Amino acid sequence: MIHSGSGYMISNWLIRLAHIIYACLMLFPISSIASTDVNNSSINHITAAIYNSPPWGWKESNGQIKGIAPELIRVLVDEVDPSIDIKYILGSTERNIQLVLSNQADIVITFYDERLAEQTVNLGNTISVDYQAWSLAETPIKALKDLESMRLATSQYYKGLFEHNVKSVNYVSSIKNLIPVLVSGNVDVVAALEPGLEFNARKHGFSKERFSILSIRSFKAYIWISKSSKINAELQRWKDASTTIIAQDSDQQLLQRFLTQDASPSKSAIHGGSP
Question: Residue 153: beta bridge partners?
Answer without folding.
Answer: 170, 190
